[in-house]
Amino acid sequence: MTTHSSLLTPHTSIYVAGHRGLVGMAICQGLEQAGCRKILTRTHAELDLTSQAAVRDFFADEQPEYVFLAAARVGGIHANDSYPAEFIRDNLLIQTNVIDSACQSGAKKLLFLGSSCIYPKFAPQPMKEEYLLTGELEPTNEWYAIAKIAGIKMCQAYRRQYGFNAISLMPTNLYGPGDNFDLQSSHVLPALMRKFHTAKMDGLQEVEIWGTGSPKREFLHVDDLAEASLFLMEEYNEPEIVNVGSGQEVTIGELADLVGKVVGFQGKIRYNSAMPDGTPRKLLDVSRLTSLGWQAQIELRQGIEDTYNWFIQQEEVAS
Length: 319
Ligand code: GFB
Fold this sequence. Notes:
Layout: E1 13-17, H1 22-33, E2 38-40, H2 52-62, E3 66-69, H3 77-82, H4 84-104, E4 109-113, H5 142-162, E5 166-171, E6 173-175, H6 188-202, E7 206-210, E8 216-221, H7 222-235, E9 242-244, E10 249-251, H8 252-263, E11 268-272, E12 281-282, H9 287-292, H10 300-318
Parallel strand pairs: 1-2, 1-3, 3-4, 4-5, 5-9, 6-8, 7-11, 8-12
Antiparallel strand pairs: 8-10
The chain binds guanosine-5'-diphosphate-beta-L-fucopyranose.
The site of guanosine-5'-diphosphate-beta-L-fucopyranose (GFB) has 24 residues, from helix 3, helix 6 and strand 7.
C-alpha cells in the first residue's frame, strides 16, 4: 500500500461505514497500513445505519473528521433482481443518513462509493463519467443504480449548498478476500470460485453457470480500490464523479476458464440461459483517474489466486 501525503495521519479520526464488508474491510486495512490509528467502526448491531436518529447521535458524539461511506446493501445480479425494494430502500436510507449527519456534525470530507451500474445499459464503451443520466438503466439492477445515483447527487448538492467536501467514486465489479461467497446473493467471481471448488472436492463433472457466458465485465481487486479510495481522499476535491477500474475486461466464459484453472476444476461448464445475463458490457473509462496519478496494480489472475487462497483458509477454519 502506498502511503500518501498529509490528511490521513495517526491522529486523524476516520469513520469507515461498512467495515465488515468487502470494501470497508480493505479500506480499514489500507488506513492501518498508512499509519492511521483513530479508525472508528461500528457493527450493524451497534449502529443501525438505516436509523436517522441513531446515525445522528453517533456523528454528534464521535465527530469524525473523515468518512468513508462503504456501507450498502449489495449483491449480485440475482439478489438485485429479487429484492428491488430492499436495495432501493436500504441504500437510500444508509447514504442519506450518513451524508447528512457527516455534514451536520462538521466532518471535513466524505467519500461516497457508487457503482458502474449507474451508467446506461447501452452506454458507449469504455464509459466516461459524463455518460451518467444519458439513457435507460439495466433493469436487473436499476433500483440499486437509482439509489447510487441519488447518493452522487446528494454529495453534489451538499457541496453546492453547504460547501461540504463530499466526493464520489464509481468502482467497477470488485472481488477479493472477504467477499460474499453465498451462491444466491454473491457476484459472479466468488460464485464461480465456490461452484468450481465444491465440484472439485465432490468429484462433480459439470458446473452450471448463469446466462450465456457472453457478457463482458471488468474486474478490480478490492485492495486496488482501497488504495484508490485513500489516494482520492487525499488528493481529490471536486464535485464530478471519478471512475475506478482496472481496464481488465473479460467475458463471463473467459472468467470461468480462468477461475476454473486457478481452482483446479477439470470438468465441463453448462450455461443456464434461463438466468439473466444483465448488461452486455460494462467497461469504465479511467482516464480521469489516471490523469490524477493513480492506476490499478493487481492483475486479474494474480488477484484470483490471492482470493482463492483466502477462500480455502476460510473453508478450513469452518470445517
Ligand atoms: O457479478 P454479477 O452477479 O453482477 O453477474 P452484474 C455478472 C454476470 O455473471 C452476469 C453471470 O451475466 C451473470 O449472469 N453469472 C454466471 C453469474 N454465473 C453466475 C453465478 O453463479 N452467479 C452470479 N452472480 N452471476 C451486479 C449488479 O451486476 O454488479 C449490482 O446487479 C452491482 O447492482 C454489481 O452493480 C457490481 O455485473 O451483472
